[in-house]
Automatic annotation (TrEMBL):
GO MF annotations in UniProt: DNA binding; DNA-binding transcription factor activity
InterPro entries listed in its UniProt record: DNA-bd_dom_put_sf, MerR-type_HTH_dom, MerR_fam, TipA-like_antibiotic-bd, TipAS_dom
SMART domains, per database record: HTH_MERR
Alphabetized UniProt keyword annotations: Activator, DNA-binding, Transcription, Transcription regulation
Record's protein name: MerR family transcriptional regulator
Native organism: Planococcus maitriensis
Database matches in Pfam families: MerR_1 (PF13411), TipAS (PF07739)
Residue ranges that the Swiss-Prot or TrEMBL entry lists as coiled coil: none
Length: 261
């Protein structure tokens, strides 16, 4: 991959000033092998075009919330393409900008309503938060969910989420929390097939009803399998206790089998 241009050679201090980071940060990146300067003919450690471009990518990824270990793996991965990486970063930043624009608009409408200059419908009060929830889910699980259920189904689910009114959205969030609380209790109370486990599975079905067009036991069971197959899903439910994701999966499987009888 060619450098994006520039052509300068920078000392630690000069590159730190140019990039808006501290010299200490650059030295730390060097110490962990993330950004290593080269030596010029005089033996001084300097950063050339390749190192400058790499630092730009590092800082982009840091802004997007990546840890240094993850950044190192990405940049050093065989076949890593800087242009493709930048395109992906741009898309993520565009999504973030859209989310922030929506939140800013929401705040402006709220200020106007508080001043008595306009009226704000209840559903407008939560648009920014619902959009963020949709965007977060898309970023974290969108690829897997779309592959499993198809674009049309996921788009309908997202539209239903964004169309929620105030009371619906609040009920949705309350039920989400109730599931975690009941799941924590059920883990200690007995088997997934028992009353406590089946109560959690039924609450989970009700929760899906807020975003699903219609309920299908087979689809519910398929989603439950993803809770244990994908560690990102599992991590969410493990907040209720160790083994919670597996317990929920087993409870839902038992529940859906009864529904299919």
């Amino acid at each position: 991959m060619k450098s994006s241009g520039g052509g300068g050679m920078y000392t630690v201090q000069k590159l730190a000033t140019l990039a808006g980071v501290s010299a200490r940060t650059l030295r730390y990146y060097d110490s962990i092998g993330l950004l290593t300067p080269k030596k010029n003919e005089s033996g001084y450690r300097v950063y050339g075009c390749a190192e400058t471009d790499r630092l730009q990518l590092i800082l982009f990824y840091r802004e997007l919330g990546f840890g240094l270990d993850d950044i190192a793996k990405l940049l050093d991965e065989s076949g890593f393409d800087e242009t493709e990486a930048l395109i992906a970063q741009r898309e993520q930043l565009m999504r973030e900008r859209s989310r922030l624009d929506l939140l800013i608009t929401n705040v402006e409408k709220t200020i106007s309503a508080k001043k008595g200059e306009s009226r704000m419908a209840d559903h407008e009060k939560f648009e920014g938060f619902k959009q963020q929830l949709v965007d977060d889910n898309e970023a974290a699980f969108g690829k897997e969910i779309r592959e499993k259920y198809g674009d049309a189904e996921v788009d309908r689910s997202n539209a239903k989420m964004l169309g929620m009114g105030q009371e619906q959205y609040e009920a949705f969030k309350r039920l989400e929390q109730e599931i975690l609380e009941k799941l924590e209790h059920a883990l200690k109370a007995g088997e997934p097939e028992g009353a406590s486990g089946q109560e959690v599975a039924d609450l989970h079905r009700q929760w899906l009803g807020f975003t699903w067009g219609s309920y299908e036991p087979k689809a519910h069971a398929g989603l439950a399998e993803m809770y244990v197959a994908d560690e990102r899903f599992a991590a969410y439910y493990e907040k209720a206790g160790e083994g919670a994701a597996q317990y929920l999966r087993d409870a839902i499987i038992a529940y859906t089998e009864k529904q299919s009888e």
